[in-house]
């Protein structure tokens, strides 16, 4: 991490000439501007501006109607990007470049924009802090590496995709050694950027990787996740490969997840831990986990935001299909880790690799804190193959289903506000509308002659 004073010194010596000033959009991507370092030091460190459509576009940067926040009728005005100088850091894989994340403010009032992903998470963190609690989280980033670059794959219409390896490389040292020309610089550059990388490993499919980052407070966790995902794509590209976070790129291949580990701390001590409680999980921890489980259908959209996200939920793939918990069981939607230790926590396994970490973490926090407020009882843990448990409640199986549970969620409307929920409901509706109007290759091949 950098201080503002250190940046001045690096600018004076010529070590740094560019500052990336970024916000996080609805899809969890970095958007922003590249400043000459001197302009940033002179004025842009205080604020800069961007079009308010950046929080009302889809993956293709289309500008759908139906948003109250911005529209053609309102003329698409500006937001203020307010750099959070505590996030200032080098980007070692880009020559002479540092970056800073920004909070998004209303241009006229300078109040936080309520549907900004970073603000939505900050609001839930503040809610926890009002209870004397500090949310601690970690995310796992799974992705696929492919033989060619994004540009080469796009030129081939995204067909004939070839992963970087030819076989399942889960924990496989020989195969992952072949990929060190990409993965080693990812680890080292991210660490040099102030992100506490723990490790990388092969995942349970050909060409599939996992990046693990040390746990931290919730906002730092989301910041680390977002920067790491962005960096992974850039670094892989510079080495001739595409890194894809699409959850399900082929129907015969295992999907990619982003598991979220959660616990609450108070005054530097883990509040989930109680040595005398079953599994070492305190009453507060049980209430929080019960809330996450009870309200899982309400917030599934924030864990699985696209049509493709739901293709991942299939039995026998290590992706969950049920909203139940179990002790160290990877077939459940929620897995207790660190049983009986101070590291006891709950891992939510529902989220896909395409989630926006700010929104996902905020939704999980909102549900867990509601569980504490309602003093919910945590059901006994499940066991065995949860894919075959007909009594366990299902995760919403399509984006269409998840949109309806989001729209009807009293819990999320109370926690995030109607404005934010309606904004992301429109986001989800648009995604479904765009898919519904497309004729897929599968439909043509299946029915062209036989229908």
From TrEMBL:
This is Glutamate--isopropylamine ligase. Its cofactor is Mg(2+). InterPro entries: Gln_synt_N, Gln_synt_N_sf, Gln_synth/guanido_kin_cat_dom, Gln_synth_cat_dom. Its EC number is 6.3.2.-. Residues 14-109 form the GS beta-grasp domain. GO terms for biological process: biogenic amine catabolic process; biogenic amine metabolic process; glutamine biosynthetic process. Keywords: ATP-binding, Ligase, Nitrogen fixation, Nucleotide-binding. The keyword NAD does not apply. Catalyzes the ATP-dependent biosynthesis of glutamine from glutamate and ammonia. GO terms for molecular function: ATP binding; glutamine synthetase activity. Belongs to the glutamine synthetase family. It comes from the Bacteria. Residues 117-451 form the GS catalytic domain.
């Amino acid at each position: 991490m950098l201080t503002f004073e250190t940046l001045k010194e690096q600018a004076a010596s010529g070590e740094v000439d560019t500052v990336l000033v970024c916000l996080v959009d609805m899809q969890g991507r970095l958007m922003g501007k590249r400043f000459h370092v001197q302009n940033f030091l002179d004025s842009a460190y205080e604020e800069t501006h961007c079009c308010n459509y950046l929080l009302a576009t889809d993956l293709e940067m289309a500008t759908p109607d139906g948003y109250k926040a911005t529209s053609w009728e309102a003329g698409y005005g500006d937001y203020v990007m307010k750099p959070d100088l505590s996030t200032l850091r080098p980007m070692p894989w880009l020559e002479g470049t540092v970056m800073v994340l920004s909070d998004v403010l209303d241009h006229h009032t300078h109040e936080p924009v309520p549907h900004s992903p970073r603000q939505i998470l900050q609001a839930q963190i503040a809610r926890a802090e009002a209870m004397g609690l500090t949310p601690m989280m970690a995310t796992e980033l799974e992705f696929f590496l492919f033989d060619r670059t994004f540009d080469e794959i796009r030129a081939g219409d995204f067909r004939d995709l070839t992963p970087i390896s030819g076989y399942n490389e889960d924990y496989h040292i020989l195969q992952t050694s072949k990929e060190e020309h990409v993965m080693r610089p990812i680890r080292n550059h991210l660490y040099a950027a102030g992100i506490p990388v723990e490790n990388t490993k092969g995942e349970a499919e050909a060409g599939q990787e996992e990046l693990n980052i040390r746990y931290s407070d919730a906002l730092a966790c989301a910041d680390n996740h977002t920067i790491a995902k962005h960096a992974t794509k850039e670094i892989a590209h510079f080495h001739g490969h595409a890194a894809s976070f699409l959850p399900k790129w082929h129907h015969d291949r295992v999907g990619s997840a982003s598991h979220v580990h959660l616990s609450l701390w108070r005054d530097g001590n883990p509040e989930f831990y109680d040595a005398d409680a079953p599994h070492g999980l305190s009453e507060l921890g049980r209430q929080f986990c019960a809330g996450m489980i009870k309200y899982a259908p309400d917030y599934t959209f924030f864990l699985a935001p696209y049509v493709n996200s739901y293709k991942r939920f299939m039995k026998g793939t290590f992706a969950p299909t049920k909203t139940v918990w179990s002790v160290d069981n990877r077939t459940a939607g929620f897995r207790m880790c660190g049983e009986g230790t101070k590291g006891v926590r709950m891992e939510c396994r529902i989220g896909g690799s395409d989630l926006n970490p700010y929104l996902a973490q905020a939704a999980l926090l909102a549900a867990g804190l509601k569980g504490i407020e309602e003093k919910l009882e945590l059901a006994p843990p499940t066991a065995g193959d949860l894919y075959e448990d007909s009594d366990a409640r299902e995760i919403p199986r399509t984006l269409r289903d998840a949109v309806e549970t989001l729209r009807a969620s009293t819990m999320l409307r109370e926690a995030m506000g109607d404005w934010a929920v309606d904004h992301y409901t429109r986001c989800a509706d648009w995604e479904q509308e765009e898919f519904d109007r497309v004729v897929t290759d599968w439909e043509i091949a299946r029915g062209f002659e036989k229908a």
